[in-house]
Amino acid sequence: MTDWFDANIVLIQSTFVSLLLALSIQVPLRAGVFSFAGIGSYGVGAYTAAIVTINYEWPAFAAIAAGVVIAAAIGYLLALLLSRLGGLYLGMATIAYSLIFSVFVINGGELTGGAQGLFGAISDLTTGGVIGVTVVVVVLLALSERGRIGRRIAAVREDPELAMSTGVPVLAIRQLSFVVSGALGACAGAMNTLLRSTVSPDEIGFQLVVLALTMIIVGGSRSWLGAFIGAVIFTWLPSVLEFVGDWQTVVYGVLVALAAIFVPGGLLGVLQQGYRRWRRRALPIGGTA
């Protein structure tokens, strides 16, 4: 087991980073907010962590926290600025935020390293630290999916007008989703940078939007567990598909298309439906388990 862990340490680290990236998109979607701001926040966290580590030798968790705080603040400002937008228009605006940040770091001179990026962000971040942070995040999000909080978020997603009429703070929940999305995206970007000790503009482009959205579509958008399923699949799939060579992109496209057409609720939805059917069959006739 130890040999397997050591041989696949990079993939294991990438799985947890990808999960946080996917959650940065899943959280606003769960509140009915079509936002990709978490991708831009990934870049904010990545570059912030690199800058404070290289220039000021901050410890890993302080560098991560700096990126999270800055990205969360930007997320709140975006929530205020884009409050009148929704649907595809909001999605396009948040993608523009990610692209604008890419342009900024390319032209950032010595601060961001320009088109070459930054190198030498060596820190004390360990795989255990990455797993620990991710577990804490997942536990908090899992709690938000249950009870009164979960019902309020579902109401905002399904019928915001009705939710508002019953006293649910729709605007506050949507603004909070921007803040949480920014924090999660920045945490993922910061940890990835500190694990790899480098960051460049090529790593924070539009491909991250595609990757995160793909994980959500295939895994499921209503729960953290769907994001986890998608993160595992699309982190480990390239190593599984090595035998197809250049056809990997085609296989990716086919999988996503099939998932969108035949499994609109994601693989998590399929598993949940299967469990409900099994429960119904397991119940005694005329009684309850």
The value of Rg in angstroms is 20 Å
What's the β-strand tally? 2
Low-confidence stretches: none
Question: What is the chain-wise order of helices and strands?
Answer: HHHHHEHHHHEHHHH
Oligomer: single chain
Distance linking N and C termini: 38 Å
**Estimated share of beta-strand residues:** under 5%
Structural class: mainly alpha
Shape: globular
Mean pLDDT: 89
Number of helices: 13
What summary fits the major beta sheet? 2 strands, antiparallel
Helix coverage percent? over 70%
Spatial strand sequence of the major β-sheet: 1-2
Topology:
Layout: H1 2-7, H2 9-30, H3 37-56, H4 60-81, H5 87-106, E1 118-119, H6 127-144, H7 147-158, H8 160-165, H9 170-196, E2 198-199, H10 207-219, H11 224-240, H12 248-262, H13 266-282
Antiparallel strand pairs: 1-2
Helix pairs in contact: 2-6, 2-9, 2-10, 2-11, 3-4, 3-5, 3-9, 4-9, 10-11, 10-13, 11-13
What does this structure look like?
The mean pLDDT is 89. 74% of the residues lie in helices and 1% in strands. The radius of gyration is 20 Å and the shape is globular. With 289 residues, the chain is mainly alpha-helical.
